[in-house]
Specification:
This protein is an alpha/beta fold and 358 residues long. Helices cover 36% and strands 22% of the residues. The termini are far apart. Bound molecules: guanosine-5'-triphosphate (GTP), magnesium ion and zinc ion.
Length: 358
């Protein structure tokens, strides 16, 4: 049973110390507000995280959908206790929404991240760049899946636009209604491999899962007529074993995808911008008015869309903000930097006044 869900000799090895303590292994196949459902050697069980685990674990160490865990079976109780989370192979992590905004693991131990966007009015390149950066950071292979191709007369232009920003990631145009392109999606899901569906509400994630499964496994709902947005139909995360042997994790549509520590991911997605910036005459070029600026030259030549540079700068600023927030030393350095700048500015103003007055 566990082998079908991806249990391997390596995991068996990792699990040895937990087995010695009397724990049994399981994988989280459902995560909802109230707790978890796990798959174990003996079938499915409901579970919750132990108090000790919750107290000691950082946000991104808490059990999440796709995790392999060590559980304590409690005879006579209806729910098992998750006591430990095994080291993850990959993790798709976002900044949690809300004022506290800690790290939130959306999916753990996935091999492939299907970044799902609909080819309708809701298609947004800037949003896809965020998903790509987070996916590259996760360690999973990103695949962009453009849904609802049956609604388009000619998708080639939209696909080309997405390919231009997807640097190296495959871009598939599919229809869960007609079946077009589904084989190409399934090709990324051989037996034992795990994929996650990520994207906005209404993009067609659950419909795609149902089409791959050949049956109605997840509920779906029509998008809103006025603005083509989804209705947040899926509210839990669920890992489904497909008849083909692949595993696919459905997730609730995200309103926004805040970056979490995704510096390397952003660099991968914006390889073109960083490569150009490396050719500017000055190492600290701001690409505004310096001479010998390769970035501005590329924009003027029509090679680099200016919106892409702006998107890159925006994500960099977001990362820097997060780093200051989570790293008190960086915040202090930043304050010190500004304090010294203010001091220099005041001295300069004073000196200038002196000259003007005198
Ligand atoms: N024409 C067409 N409609 C589709 C396709 N895929 C999904 N839809 C429709 O899009 C709507 C939303 O689909 P869902 O699968 O519920 O979307 P979701 O991404 O799971 O949304 P959340 O669960 O809210 O995150 C439904 O009405 C689907 O029938 C497609 O390939 N073609
Ligand atoms: Mg859904
Ligand atoms: Zn420059």
């Amino acid at each position: 049973m566990l082998t079908q869900y991806g249990w391997s000799p390596e995991l068996q090895d990792l699990f040895k110390p937990y087995a010695a303590d009397g724990f049994v292994p399981g994988r989280i196949v459902v995560q909802h507000r109230g707790g978890y459902r796990l798959i174990t050697e003996d079938g499915e069980v409901d579970a919750r995280a132990s108090g000790t685990l919750l107290r000691s674990a950082a946000d991104d160490e808490r059990p999440a959908a796709g995790d392999w865990v060590a559980i304590e079976a409690r005879p006579g109780e209806t729910t098992a206790l998750v006591r430990h989370v095994l080291p993850r192979k990959t993790a798709f992590i976002r900044k949690a929404s809300g004022p506290r905004g800690g790290a939130q693991v959306v999916a753990a131990n996935v091999d492939v991240a299907f970044l799902v966007a609909s080819l309708n009015a809701d298609l947004n390149l800037r949003r896809l760049e965020r998903y790509l950066a987070t996916a590259y950071e996760s360690g999973a292979d990103p695949v962009v899946v453009l849904t609802k191709v049956d609604l388009m007369d000619d998708p080639s232009e939209a696909v080309a636009e997405v390919e231009a920003i997807a640097i190296g990631a495959p871009v598939l145009a599919v229809s869960s209604k007609t079946g077009q392109g589904l084989d190409a999606v399934a090709a990324h899901l051989p037996p034992g491999r795990t994929a996650v569906l990520l994207g906005s509400s209404g993009a067609g994630k659950s419909t795609l899962l149902n089409a791959l499964a050949g049956e109605e496994r997840m509920a779906t709902a029509e998008i809103r007529e006025d603005d083509a947005r989804g209705r947040h139909t899926t509210t839990h995360r669920e890992l489904v074993l497909l008849p083909s042997g692949g595993l696919i994790l459905d997730t609730p549509g995200m309103r926004e995808l805040g970056l979490w520590d995704a510096g390397a991911g952003v660099s991968t997605v914006f390889e073109d911008v960083e490569h150009l910036a490396g050719q500017c005459r000055f190492g600290d070029c701001t690409h505004t008015r310096e001479p010998g600026c390769a970035v501005r030259e590329a924009i003027e030549a029509g090679v680099l869309p200016v919106e892409r540079l702006r998107a890159y700068e925006k994500l960099q600023a977001e990362l820097a903000y997060e780093r200051r927030r989570s790293d008190p030393q960086a915040a202090k350095d930043n304050r010190r930097l500004w304090a010294s700048r203010h001091k220099a500015a005041r001295a300069w103003i004073k000196q200038k006044r002196g000259i003007d007055d005198g």
